[in-house]
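Whiteboard transcription, Tuesday session. T.W. wrote the structure tokens on the left side:
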């Protein structure tokens, strides 16, 4: 076969943008270790925190992450996720600190309006109690700017005052990747190393690095009901209401959180590669498509972040 008739070979897809995002995340993780005395990494067992954990492994070496992992447990988390959280922490020989909203309820610092109320918003109280208990001065989280409008406003190094509050109009500039990490007593930072990543970046990185995830991130049969344009999973915490028809659909979760406010999407995607292809065609953010608590102004993300939320 001559040069004119030989088939063209397709060039391999470039990973340069993932390399750049990974390099930035590793730089920020190391900066936190150098600048703060008592940092912690928020670890839920969800995909973003698992990506963050993978970057931390690369930053410091396997089994050498220099700060503990912290989970604020509502008591209403999917068992597939909490089980995977515990397994991953054990594999890394990492210290895992779990603090529960239920303990805050027993102390009387959290009071529900009614037994069925979502505990998601109340995580702020338990988180602030954990910060005071361990005197954390930096909390590393997996939030991204593309998730929600309020998160798009936030800096990578997000200063919180002595009440744990975020002041969106008084944020510190971050020019030329220079971070102002000065703190007064009682203050702390929330740090977001993958803030500049998108949902597609996360899934491409998961595929490239072969990061294991809880099974509910991939297609599986589940009983659901249709409610307000969402597929609500049928569980003891979220039973069907009068007149709702229970259906078994093939679904996956784009994001995971409190069972009472997290919904799956219909999907046949069974692998990370499948999810990458599916994500290329979506036009609604993860939270916009799957979180019931983000649908109301009373539970707006900006208000919650001002009150100390992640």
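and on the right, the sequence the group agreed on:
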């Amino acid at each position: 076969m001559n040069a004119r008739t030989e088939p063209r070979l397709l060039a391999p897809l470039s990973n340069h943008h993932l390399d750049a995002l990974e390099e930035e995340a590793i730089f920020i993780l190391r900066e936190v270790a150098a600048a703060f005395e008592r940092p912690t990494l928020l670890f839920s067992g969800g995909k973003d925190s698992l990506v963050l954990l993978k970057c931390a492994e690369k930053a410091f070496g396997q089994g050498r992450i220099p700060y503990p992992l912290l989970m604020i447990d509502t008591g209403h988390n999917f068992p597939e996720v909490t089980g995977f959280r515990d397994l991953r922490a054990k594999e890394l020989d990492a210290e895992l600190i779990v603090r529960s909203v239920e303990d805050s309820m027993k102390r009387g610092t959290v009071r529900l309006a009614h037994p069925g109320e979502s505990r998601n918003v109340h995580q702020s109280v338990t988180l602030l109690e954990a910060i005071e208990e361990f005197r954390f001065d930096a909390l590393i989280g997996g939030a991204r700017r593309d998730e929600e409008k309020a998160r798009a406003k936030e800096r990578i190094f997000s200063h919180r005052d002595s009440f744990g509050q975020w002041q969106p109009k008084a944020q510190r500039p971050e020019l030329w990747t220079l971070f102002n990490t000065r703190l007064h007593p009682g203050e702390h930072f929330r740090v977001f190393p993958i803030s500049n990543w998108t949902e597609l970046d996360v899934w491409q990185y998961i595929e490239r690095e072969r990061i294991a995830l809880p099974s509910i991130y991939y297609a599986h049969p589940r009983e659901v009901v249709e409610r307000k344009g969402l597929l609500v999973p049928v569980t003891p915490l979220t039973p069907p209401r009068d007149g709702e028809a229970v259906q078994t659909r093939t679904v996956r979760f784009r994001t995971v959180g409190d069972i009472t406010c997290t919904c799956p999407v219909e999907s046949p995607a069974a692998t990370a590669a499948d999810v990458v292809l599916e994500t290329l065609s979506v036009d609604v953010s993860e939270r916009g498509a799957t979180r019931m608590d983000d649908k109301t102004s009373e539970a707006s993300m900006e208000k919650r972040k001002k009150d100390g939320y992640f």
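Someone added at the bottom: Residues 283 and 289 are 9 Å apart (CA to CA).
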